[in-house]
Give the backbone structure.
Amino acid sequence: MSEIVIRPAVRADLPRLTEIYNHYVLHTPVTFDLEPYTVEKRAAWFDQFGSTGRYRLVVAEENGVVLGYAGTLRFRPKAAYETTVETTIYCAQDAIGKRLGSRLYAALFDAIKGEDIHRIVAGYTLPNDASAALHARCGFKPVGIYTEVGRKFGRYWDVQWTERPLKLT
């Protein structure tokens, strides 16, 4: 039986991370990117994460294959937002149903537990029952819906915003 390992992402993961993300770009409305990325163009995204600090990236790996990832990113560039981070989380299509999302978020939040972070926010395109369930399981509470803010596949999509404190009480 194989074991799923959650670990910090490394540069060598970038081709697989790009592959996972591009599936969602091309086939779903869950990201509002419209064109797939090359590994080279995705490098700037990867470079915002560190091995310390607020902005981290973790991956789930099984038998040497990355199945998904979760990270924390800068929420907004203004200084007063420094203690708020936004999450990103994606799993490979063949890994859906393995409940990786909860494990990825748990490892990510554990990695940043000592950082000066007050709030974690997450947004997801509606409808998305799987994302809604994952975020609820992980302590996120809905705070509002931006209506028709993204146009993809010839229609407009709403985005549900959620939040949670870093330390759940």
Remarks:
- The radius of gyration is 15 Å.
- The mean pLDDT is 96.
- The longest helix spans residues 14-27.
